[in-house]
């Protein structure tokens, strides 16, 4: 499996998607997309030699189950998925997609619970939200062997650098000025 690193572009609208098609970015992360748009978006991306990672939980009209993932694999031909749902991550791994488990670190209990889940599930990456807490990024990076991606509420280059210094291998942001 290829490794994700650096600042990863997460798009919420077609204007940013079009901008990425003409960029040197290898991956495009799709957020807030409608199911009916996915096949054509993926075709445009593939023509531009881009790889698509979709946030399954945010695709309007898609049920996050075995059949929904089958559609993403066979019809859309995605390269990876992001999800908070354990069953979706397990299915993605079974089908050899890049599997990114999104975790919301709200308090100590959530942190411990999430670490137990990912030890069993073993996603390819975990995305920690909010990504503004270098101390937590460092703690998680030291406790598990799964690469950490920081995301959510990252608004400055300094915050990106702090996440990298804390041990994140990548940072996701929908702020196109930071790509």
Automatic annotation (TrEMBL):
Keyword field: Glycerol metabolism, RNA-binding, Transcription, Transcription regulation
Entries under InterPro entries matching the protein: Aldolase_TIM, GlpP
Keyword Transcription regulation in record: yes
Protein purpose: Regulates expression of the glpD operon. In the presence of glycerol 3-phosphate (G3P) causes antitermination of transcription of glpD at the inverted repeat of the leader region to enhance its transcription. Binds and stabilizes glpD leader mRNA.
Protein name: Glycerol uptake operon antiterminator regulatory protein
Species assigned in the record: Thalassobacillus hwangdonensis
């Amino acid at each position: 499996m290829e490794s994700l690193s650096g600042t990863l572009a997460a798009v919420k609208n077609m204007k940013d998607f079009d901008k990425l098609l003409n960029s040197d970015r290898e991956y495009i992360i799709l957020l807030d997309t409608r199911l009916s748009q996915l096949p054509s978006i993926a075709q445009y991306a593939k023509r531009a030699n881009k790889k698509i990672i979709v946030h399954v939980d945010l695709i309007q009209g898609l049920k996050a189950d075995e059949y929904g993932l089958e559609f993403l694999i066979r019809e859309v031909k995605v390269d990876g998925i992001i999800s908070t749902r354990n069953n979706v991550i397990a299915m993605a791994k079974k089908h050899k997609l890049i599997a990114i488990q999104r975790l919301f670190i709200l308090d100590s209990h959530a942190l411990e619970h999430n670490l137990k889940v990912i030890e069993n599930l073993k996603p390819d990456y975990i995305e920690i939200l909010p990504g503004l807490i270098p101390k937590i990024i460092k703690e998680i990076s030291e406790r598990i062997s799964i690469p950490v991606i920081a995301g959510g509420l990252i608004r400055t280059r300094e915050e990106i650098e702090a996440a990298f210094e804390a041990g994140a291998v990548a940072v996701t942001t929908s702020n196109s000025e930071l790509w």
